[in-house]
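Quick sanity check, Holo-[acyl-carrier-protein] synthase:
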Amino acid sequence: MNPLGVGIDLVYIPRIKRLCETYKERFIKRVFTSEELNYALRKRNPFPALASAFAVKEAFFKSLRGYSPFNFQEISLVRDPLTGAPEIHLTGQAEKVFKERGGEKILLSLSHDCEYTIAIVYIWGGK
C-alpha cells in the first residue's frame, strides 16, 4: 500500500460549543451522526468529543486532496469496542469517493488539550 493523502484539522472547542448553542438541532443533526452524539452525550462535557468528531470530518475531507461531493453525516468517528481506539466509519458518497480514489485503509490520530482538539487522517491504498 502507498500513502494517498493526509489531512489535519485543529478545532477550537469553544467554537463548537457556541455553534451547538446558537444553532442547536439545525447544526447538531446536520454535522454529527447518532454514534457521535451518543458517545459525546455520555460525557459530563460533550463538547471536546463533538469537536474531535468535527476535526475528523474536516481532516478526512483534506486527506482526499480536493472537492468531494459528500456530507458530514457520511463520515463518523467511532471507537473500537475492545480498545476504545478512534476509527472512521464511512457510508454513502464518502465511502464511494474513498474507494474510487484507491483508498484501502485509514489511519487516524486524535489529541486534545485545554481548548483545542486535533485530528490527523492518513489514507493508504493501491493507486
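Posting the structure with no commentary besides this: The CA atoms of residues 21 and 27 lie 9 Å apart.
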